[in-house]
Amino acid sequence: MKRIFILSLLAQCFPAEAAGRQARTDAFAAAFEAVASLSAEQTSAPILPSPLAGHSVELINNGTDHHLLSFYRGPEMVAVHNWPWRRGTVVVPDGDYELAVLSPAATIRPYRGKAAFKRGVRVSEYVIQTTSGKNDAARTALSSLASGDYKLLYAPAALRALAVEPRTGLPVAKRAP
I need a labelling partner for 67 at 20 to 30 A (CA). Which of 2, 45, 101, 129 fits? Predict the structure, then answer.
């Protein structure tokens, strides 16, 4: 898993260079290979309509003490990094997506899902499930304590004039300086 994180970081640092584009391709291939043996879970239904025509919003709450890397494969290929205990907003074009969510920790089971993004806002709450199968009730009780303001993790280039409302994570127009 650490290799996938490193490839993703290279892709983010050098997006316009051949090495960065190759790292992105390799990161996506490795991420979906890492979850290929898992059953794809159907993700939660939208809780609100999206305020953006032709786009959907995912509010990510990383309720773990691990970095998470989320890959979206569908009409657009998106990879986002979310820090431990933090919140983030991802805006993607509407469509059907396959998801892979990974942690660099070998003991953390990756997640594989499918989502139909159809002009909605959905919330993804990530918690820890270890490969040892042990159920840590104390950690489970704390798993939804992602905190801080929402940060915009990704929006398509056509929507770069977006910001997010820090408390709700919903997209808003950027304010002029």
Answer: 45
